[in-house]
Every structure is written in structure tokens, then in C-alpha cells.
């Protein structure tokens, strides 16, 4: 069970693609100590109810390092509530600008997995990820890169239609710094054109060639955007079973204590869609029927598609929700992206398999 704790809506950055600008524009709330404790107790109980006996607590935000004391307190609470013969692990999603020796030592000692938002070198990163005061954020992250390389760090590079000509070069730069695990996330905003998708395809093709080159050199470099789709095909597996663990493998808690099926659904707004209950009342199973249906059924428009189990438009609840407003429809731009990407992934895999 992955328990995602949105410790705060507040953030010291104002990234151009941040979905909080719409879902939580006022950034009012931070999680209270009582809410934090109830969330952790509920996370352990749900883990036991599902027969998992494992809890991964992901500290999320906003920017969770604005709430360092809550992270420490949450860790102490998690151990206090930890059942016998169970496993516990921690993770944090951070923009990296508030790192310091204390937090990095903590992450190292406690074997945190660190998800770091980093879009590339200074000129690329700062074009998308500026501070609340309008200044770039790269120089606040760069000094900590050597330390981050020694941690269990996964770099997340966000792709937008506004900056399409530097994707491959920025991922190469991130890899050259020494990061061995990189994943990308596309900002699907409903305004992607065919021309923009073609430009993205060219960047993906360049990335695929780079990935093949690194693999031929026996480099352990992991590029999620390519390898996740290849792995699903080779293992005859689906995103829903491998990655999309909403409700049955994940639970997200808003700063107010409301429960949601995964991170992208979280909101502190009154009457937020797909609210499943609260840490004070537990999961209201009467609200979960649509989610269970999503997990067990194909979308009607995708039933005959050979790519459906590898396609985030069909499989990922978060993508479906934020691009269509629900779980049953498919965004045309996400569908086009997935068809294009699958073809590039398959070509790269074949090239690697057929290489001497």
C-alpha cells in the first residue's frame, strides 16, 4: 500500500505546468498533527485489510520540504503504528530547492526514495520551473546533485508543448550528471496539435536512439518512458496490474484529511470529485463502484485496440481523470501520444534485440 500524504498545498515555486494552479489555486491548507496521525493509522489498517502488510508512505505536496517537522513526526508515527511482521518504507516528491544537509542525511539514513523534479540544465529547467518571485530555481538544486546521486533518486522530467526542442538534450544532460533513473511526464492540456505531436515524436526518436546506444554499452540507465512500455509487452502485463494501483494499492490524503484514489485526484475543494471519505471516517465503499469498474473493465472505445494494456489513456486513472474529467472516456491527444510512443518503443526494442 502506498499512502500519499499531501502535507501542504503550499509551494515555493510556480511551475508553468503545475495543475495546482487550477485544483488548489489558493494554497490554503497544511496537514495538522491529528490529521497526519489518523492518516497513518488508516494507512496501516488498510494495508492489513488488503492482506499486504507493507506500507510505503510518500510525503507529497505542494512542496513537502516546507513541512520538514511533519515528515519527522510522520515517520515516528508510522513506526509507532507499525504492526508486527510488516514492512515500512518512505519516499518524498520534491522540487529540490529546499534540500539541506539535514534532510539529505535523513533520506540516506532512512533509505528514502527521492522523486526529484528536474527538467534539465539551467536554461531549460528555469524556463518552466521558476520561484514564486519569478526567479529561476535551478541554482538552488544544482549544489545538491552530487549528494542526490548517492541516494535512491528518480528524476522526473516534465514535457510541455511549449518547450519541445530540448527534451532529448535535457534527458541526456540529466543522465550525464550521473542519474541512472529518469522518467518523463507529459502535460496533456488539451491543446496539443498534430505539429506539436510530430515534434515530440522526433524528440522521442532521438531519445530512443540514445537509450539503445547506452544499453549496447551495458549502461544501467533506466528511461521509464521507453522501458515501461517495453516491459509491459514482454511480460504480457497491463498498466493497471503493474502501475495503476488506485484504491487497492494506493490511497492519497489531502492536507485537510480527505481521501482520494490517487495523487492527481487530490483537492481540498468542497465536494471534490472522487472523494472517498476522510481519515476521520475511513473509506466510504459506496463511492468506489466506478473505480472498481475501471480496474476490471476495458473502456468501451478501447475494447478492440491492441495497445490498450500498454496505454495510459486506457489504463491510468489519473490521466483519464485530469484529461477527461472522469474514468470512462479517452482524451484524443493522449491516445495519439500513446500510439506514437508505442511504435517508437517497439522499434527501439527490436533494434536492441537484433544488435550483435
Helix content: 40-55%
Tell me the overall shape: globular
Number of strands: 11
Structural class: alpha/beta
Task: Going across the biggest sheet, name each strand in turn.
Answer: 7-6-5-4-3-2-1-8-9-10-11
Q: Give the end-to-end Cα distance, rounded to a whole number of Å.
A: 42 Å
CATH superfamily of the domain at 2-242: Aldolase class I
What does the main sheet amount to? 11 strands, mixed
- Kindly provide the radius of gyration, computed on alpha-carbon positions and rounded to a whole number of angstroms: 20 Å
Low-confidence stretches: none
Give the class-level CATH name of the domain at 2-242. Answer: Alpha Beta
CATH fold annotation of the domain at 2-242: TIM Barrel
Second-tier CATH architecture of the domain at 2-242? Alpha-Beta Barrel
Give the helix tally: 15
